[in-house]
Amino acid sequence: MKIDLGDFEAGDPFDGHYKKALRKLQKRLSHIQTAHIIHKRRAIILFEGWDAAGKGGIIRRLTADWDPRYFEVWPISAPTPEELSHHFLWRFWRRLPAQHNIAVFDRSWYGRVLVERVEGFASDAEWKRGFDEINDFEAQQAETGATLIKIFVHVTQKTQDKRLRDRIDHPWKRWKTGLDDYRNRAKRDAYLAAMHDMFEKTSTEAAPWVVVDGNNKKAARIAALTAIADALEAKVPMEPPALDPEVEAAARGAGVID
């Protein structure tokens, strides 16, 4: 399916009671995580998108009711010297989840075909080869039973500028912005071209892209969490486990239950 980011710029508000819808989704996601723990499934959720698109806010609400022992959020920044000495996927292999765990990537291996391409950190040969390498990597995860969910949060230049301005105006948000935001902003057309290629070449049957209109934060959070819950739920049995007879007997013996 062709993806046109222009189709995700309406910024419509959430049509409903936001807090109630959010709590319902978070409860659902809590049950889904429990199902992954019980059935020893693993999942990988990655977020890409513009600076100030709202990825962090979505991730905080996604994981709000999750047991911290069974998930990890990986914020991905520039590779370290050690990581640069290996294949670009090496640092992501090391962060893949074990059975009954969920890994959340705040940015990901798609840096090879986005920021590394646009900023010249990878050669033309490297980033062009990256499409096939990424597809193979993701196919391997699917073949070994992992659920892979790829969320791209899109905002217009107008929305991004407003949020960057808010970060400057708010003293406790200034740490969230830096020169990279403005370097990337100045190259929006180049990033749009890279994103177009990324969607075209890496939205596969095993790992399709889901684009979220991030121009209204509340609507974006509900849309992203719903897409994630639907995708996770489709790959794991959702029946709660029966009570272990030995545990039940012990509980009765202790007077905990009748």
UniProtKB/TrEMBL annotation:
A GO molecular function annotation here is: kinase activity
Alphabetically sorted, this entry's keywords are:
Kinase, Transferase
The Polyphosphate kinase-2-related domain, residue ranges: 17-235
Instruction: Tell me the domain of life.
Output: Bacteria
Q: Which SUPFAM superfamilies match?
A: P-loop containing nucleoside triphosphate hydrolases
Entry-linked Pfam families = PPK2
Recorded family membership: Belongs to the polyphosphate kinase 2 (PPK2) family. Class I subfamily.
Q: What is this protein called?
A: Polyphosphate kinase
The lineage is:
Bacteria, Pseudomonadati, Pseudomonadota, Alphaproteobacteria, Sphingomonadales
